[in-house]
Protein 1
Amino acid sequence: MPETSPRQSNSYKPDAIVLPPLYAWPPRLLQVLRYLVFDLLFPWTFLLLLVAVFFWNFLSPSMETMSELSAGWMIAIWVRNALILALVAGGLHWFLYIKRHQSDQYKFDARWMAKEDKRFLWGDQVKDNMFWSLASGVTIWTCYECITLWIYASGRQPILTFAEYPVYFAICVPMVLIWSTTHFYFIHRLLHFKPIYDIAHELHHRNVSPGPWSGISMHPLEHLIYFTIFALWWVVPVHPVIIILTGLFQGVSPSITHSGFDFMRIWGNRKITAGDLFHQLHHRHFHVNYGNTPTPFDKVFGSWHDGTEVGKELLKQRIRAKRAG
């Protein structure tokens, strides 16, 4: 019998999802700063920023080399990106799903990764997710990243250095998140347009109970759309570290948000945030929470689900109204 079951959840009940203080009126400056630093950026974005700085200084070709598109340096960046994804997604999978270090504590859904399931390649959800993430996801991510770096290296866009523009650089870090979540909402709605959903997005939605390797397990067409996030830097100049951070945030952070666990226990009773209940609910119900909480377009357009029983009832009412109409 497959390891999954229709059982929805263990006894863990996460808190209701609320709007971030970014949108409170009158403004609450201290709460906004706390949200930006501790809720939005800490710890994962800070870690990805450190990785981006390391990659730029030690694992990136020279600007002279990147001034011409060639397979050699592009393959090197593919390897670099594949390794960091394997380290993060593979590490989370090992910790949470193989070793089951914290059993099902903080797990959104009692189901584990599917086996003997014909929806997935080789009947195995993890192997299927790994294939699509590495073969298609990392390849298309790398192509967009390399084209963007080439635009800068070839002089088509100016490089804004940290020494000359430190404030702008600091602003760009949270702006990567804001841009990513804005971009994600609108391309995600496009992906739910039935012809595109049937061709491409349905593959990602096979992961009703996602795991770390599910993050960018997508059809190549979806990857082509998803990684258009890089196009902003073709017209808005930034430091190359921000370009690399964009790829890491778009390519690696979904492994964390799709982990299936609200928190990860690191030692004793100490824990850090892991999964994203908001997006988990989208995988479960499909027609809610197309975006992310930092840019709450779902609230504006009526597809917000806060994870409570009230939210579930509102979802049912919306479905009944849609069918009646």
Note: Strands lie at 263-267, 270-273.
Protein 2
Amino acid sequence: MQIHPIIRSAAIAHLAPVLFLSSFLFLSCSGGDAPAGGAEEAAHTGHGPEVTLTPEQVKAIGLVTGALEQRGLRTALKANGRLVLPPDKNAQVSVLVGGLVKDVAVQEGVHVEKGQVLATLENLEFLQLQQDYLETAAGLKASEADLRRQQELQADRINAARTLERVEADVAAAQARLAAMATKLRLFGIDPARLSPGAISASFVVRAPIAGNLKHIGVTLGQYAEPNKPLFEVVDNRGLHIDLNVFEQDVARVRVGQKVAFGHAGEPVGQHTATIFAINKAFESDQQAVLVHAKLDDNGEELLPGMFIEALIGVDSTQAQSLPSEAVVSNGDDHYVYVEHEANTFVQVPVRTGTSELGYTEVVPLEPIAPGARVVIKGAYYLLSEQTKGEGGHAH
């Protein structure tokens, strides 16, 4: 049966609104589902992975949060060296004249003041020196009186000029001998002006030339202390400074006034600080390195002369967003921090790291971190471990 073209056209025209309405409803239904699914997916993928802890876990790991902060971080130059004392802070105590040790008044390790008695020695030469001084002083007085008489006689033309000259020479010689003996007495700690026949003694004391700690005692009671041989060693650790070896290629980056962070064996670099005060102008004889001297800003009791140290010299300063180094964790070659998203829920944010100094590291977030956001500064490694558990990842 054939349908007349006009009837067929009319039929199609009649069905067109129905087909259009059906298509519109289908598209509307499809369009409504797509945005809903996209929004739900964005809710899950709009930020990095999350780690949620219980309040008990947060408390157990001691998790602490903080904020990104602007800090002046320095590019650091690594150097090694040792703690040393300047010559005026390390004293070897000896005597010019030997003697028997009558008394040792101190013990090793104790603190002594400048001028404090360390030991008492006996020596007959010291006794003879005092006797000679007193006799010379008495003879000088007689010679000076004779000189005055001869000068008066010479004024009246009574004596010969030769007699006056001889007396003048005797007085000058006695004065020289007395001055020399007075100097020797002072070396023994005796004031010549106070010396009298009743104060003569064979004993003299050895005193500390500087204040400090007694490092070594080289004599015992009854021993004969030899001249010019060290009997005691006193060190004043308040004068400690650092000698750092800086190699040729780095010398131009070092200047007086730069800060140094250092630590000795068994403690982290940055435990102590110092300031550069001098730079040698010649290389060391055994290597292409220059000694750089730095004065300690603090002087802890554990710092001792001769200790080897590792140091970082701050050479260039820059202002940068930073966090405590403990806040930045690594998984392979990637670095992350964790930002608090909700209570006890933390989002992983990838970052790029920069300069590190004194326990702080420059961080450049690769995803936006809201101003004032709380970042995990203690416990981040635990979060990374929880996140990578069962993923086959490896945290560092």
Note: The mean pLDDT is 81.
Protein 3
Amino acid sequence: MTRKTPGSAPVKSAATVLVSGSAGFVGRHLLRRLSEKNRASIGLYHAHLPEPMAHALPVFGDLLRVEHLPPALDGIETVVHLAWNQSFRSRIEDALWGAEETVLASRNLEMLKNLIQAMREAGTQRIIFVSALGASRHAESLYLQEKYQAELMILNSEIPEKIILRSALAFGDLKYKDRLVTAIERLMRFPWVYPVPRSKEKLAPLHVNDLSEILLRLIDMALPEPAQILEVTGQQELALEEVFRIVSQGIGKGTHIPLKGFLGEALTPLFERLRKDTTPSGPHIRDLLTIGNRRDTATIINSPLQQTLPPGAYRFQDAMQQTEQRLLQ
């Protein structure tokens, strides 16, 4: 694989990239960017087939079955690992696996263990793991605890080049049904009003196109050290109330009245339960709010590559305004 010196523009490489979780929200966008760059990629999928696109080959593989992985990794130098069960579920009772009561997050670690083993045997050089801001051994969220454990597994592995990318919440627009906008939209299904839970922290969501561009850059970027931890957020910080207001305007419910403070906090779980569908459609808003929104100063200082990442190009309100304009057309 052709590399470059740190700080210069990435050099296109002909090596094929494997993307796990390729049918997911971030995976679809990353495959699309790779396709636009005429870069060959393999989209590893399990439950859902990725959408067809040029230069992208969908390959079925169960990460819980290590024997499925060697054919997919043949000739692969870089893996972008996105696959994750029960993303953002922060409470342990939301992450149980049937009658066995096996925590789903342990399935994630088992999948990663199999992937690391297969990559080592195939001679794959680089893994890029998308983690989450706030990942920590002591995090209150089960999701963030498991992301942290996954980071440790990768950093302690024998894979020659390892990149941990801790990201803020990724958003797109209504067309792509990202988790943040979907969770907020769920609270606005009822007429006239919607609740806003209390939150002291501001959100710095990152557009999925910006996240994909960062991942695209990291695929070929030369590493000053074999292991790198990077943190990324969106270009602006917004109060939760402002995020809700922007979404309400974007989905055509700008006339609804927000219920804030103690009342909004109390009504949020009630509104989430009283939805039209009976099938869970994603994490609750409180689960999403456990994800961090600030980069750690020490991480920025100790990551030489941090300053070489492309700046964000998409603002949250611009994406929602574009959605609103499409609805009016």
Note: The chain is about 35% helix and 15% strand.
Protein 4
Amino acid sequence: MAHQPIIDRPSKSLWPRRLAWASVILLLAAGLLLAVAGPAYRTELVELGNAFSLLRYATYTALAAAAVGLITLIAGVFRRRFVPALAAALVIAAAAAMMYVPWQHWQRAQAVPAIHDITTDTDDPPAFEAVADARDDAPNEVDYPGNSTARQQREAYPEIQPLTLSAPVKTVLAAARAEMQAAGWDLAEVDTRRLEATATTRWFGFKDDVVVRLRDEDGMTRVDMRSASRLGKSDVGTNAARVHAFLTSLKARLDQG
């Protein structure tokens, strides 16, 4: 009796491994999209809207990686394919961590007002002078936006207040300049009582302008500061955090001598 030839067929036990590879590939694709969005905009390869689209696609791809990973994990455990199951668990964890970044950004955007100009003196905000020309070419205005912004700032960031220091203006000026240089800001002007600089965000390269004004008050020095974004309706709290961190560091620098 003639024997039928044996035809090799892929084992059903291989498909958890293939699903695991698929989830890994999706995760790598999501990571690549997430990583290139900021630098692509910063180097002017894409416009801002397209850069945000890359972030959105990265989120969708990470979700797909997590979904495939979950299927792989269940199949791997059911078929006792523990290596694919372990790989799938790692993919799920990595995808969750990757999605946490845009989720946190979105949560933060919902929690703060849609403003982009923060100052310690809303009645008499320090004016931009040295960076005024650069801001004229930017979407956001040079002048302080006004009462609506001031009201929203007071409600959201009550900690943003002038800083009064028991040191002469000259000493505070030198310390403020050192703090700006330590922060990596580009100094635009250093006068006897004011400093202007531009801070560039690391990932997207957004430009935010900063001015610090010093006034003598009965032998003390009052420090007022303003930080404003050139682009975007909302700064997601970035400028308030910058002002608070700078004034805190300035006081610590002077306290240390």
Note: The CA atoms of residues 118 and 153 lie 7 Å apart.
